[in-house]
Specification:
Blueprint lengths: L1 E2 L6 E2 H8 L5 E5 L7 E2 L24 E3 L1 H8 L3 H12 L6 E3 L7 H10 L3 E4 L3 H15 L2 E12 L2 E7 L5 H10 L3 E13 L3 E5 L7 E4 L3 E4 H5 L7 E3 L2 E7 L15 E4 L2 E10 L5 H16 L6 H6 L1
Parallel strand pairs: 5-6, 6-7, 9-15, 15-17
Antiparallel strand pairs: 1-8, 2-4, 3-7, 8-9, 8-10, 10-11, 11-14, 12-13, 16-17
Helix pairs in contact: 3-4, 6-8
């Protein structure tokens, strides 16, 4: 397991290129300020603080202005409007975004252009836009690590398969995909921590949906099996580690022990599966996932009566 660099900032240019279409953003002016950096995963609204003589906005936060704020500014005389706008853009802010497809006047745009302050508009309503934006930024700025393994969606559960190189993780993944599972990532899985208890796994862009099968080579799962057999990202619900069968090792036979595997301080259900010739590991993982789902519903096997018999 390898630590990856935590995202400390995101340039406005990269933000626009990456999320512009998703957020329905349209650039109005200020392209010269695209090198400004977003350093906070939370967007803000200045609200009525706009009329303060010296407003202090949170450094590095994207600021969102709705129709209410723009209408409020327009109520003042031109000289006062200029002061309000000047105060707003004098802060160390990466960019401003106008919601509900609000269109600013020429004088408004002129202030932003002069300061080289990026200004965008979106068709989305203020509340909806901020919710989506904060979710995207939270994921972008999340603490992350990379692990060597395979991430699949099995019965709507995110299953991270770990194990030493050559043990058969990819071959097992192929079997599960044929049975109806979906591939998120093979070989390198990037795991991001969202909030305090959620882990989300994605695959690197350059090897997305590619899977290495020894003896065949690298295959594209999306091209081979179709779009229904792949997923962009998946919350991780459990970890399965493949281990070479060792006759000296005592493996869990009753399922009484509850093991967990810690990733970024999040504890996940954890199963070690011994691998030996002739054992259908894909089917065993399928059963393990189904069994975990049953456990989550509170159903338990009565082992005491079975042992007495």
């Amino acid at each position: 397991m390898k630590n990856s660099e935590h995202s400390q900032s995101l340039s406005v240019g990269d933000f626009f290129a990456k999320f512009g279409e998703m957020l329905c953003l349209e650039q109005i002016c200020g392209e010269g300020g695209f090198e400004r950096h977003i350093i906070s995963p939370t967007a803000k609204k200045p609200g009525l603080r706009m009329i303060e003589k010296k407003i202090e906005l949170e450094r590095g936060n994207i600021q969102v202005l709705g129709r209410t704020e723009i209408s409020y500014i327009k109520r003042f005389a031109a000289r006062t409007q200029k002061k309000i706008i000047s105060n707003l853009i004098s802060n160390d802010i990466p960019c401003f975004i106008l919601s509900k497809e609000t269109r600013p006047g020429k004088s408004f745009r002129a202030h932003f252009e002069k300061k080289q302050m990026p200004l965008f508009t979106t068709v989305l309503s203020t509340g909806k836009f901020i919710t989506i934006l904060n979710e995207l930024l939270a994921e972008e700025f999340a603490t992350r690590i990379t692990v060597h393994g395979v991430l699949l969606d099995v019965h709507r559960r995110g299953v991270l398969i770990l194990g030493k190189s050559g043990i058969g993780k990819s071959e097992c993944a192929i079997d599960l995909i044929i049975q109806g599972s979906k591939l998120i990532a093979d070989d390198v899985v990037e795991i991001r921590k969202i909030g305090s208890h959620t882990l989300v796994g994605v695959g690197p862009e350059n090897i997305k949906y590619l899977l290495e099968v020894r003896g065949i080579g690298i295959v594209n799962i999306k091209d081979l099996f179709g779009t229904t057999c792949v997923m962009e990202k998946r919350e991780i619900d459990m970890v399965v580690e493949l281990d070479r069968w060792d006759s000296e090792t005592e493996y869990d036979r009753l399922g009484i022990d509850t093991r967990t595997h810690s990733i970024l301080d999040v504890e996940l259900p954890y199963i070690i599966l011994p691998v030996s010739p002739g054992r259908n590991i894909a089917s065993v993982i399928d059963v393990a996932v189904r069994n975990q789902i049953l456990k989550e519903t509170g159903k338990k096997i009565n082992l005491s009566s079975a042992i007495r018999e």
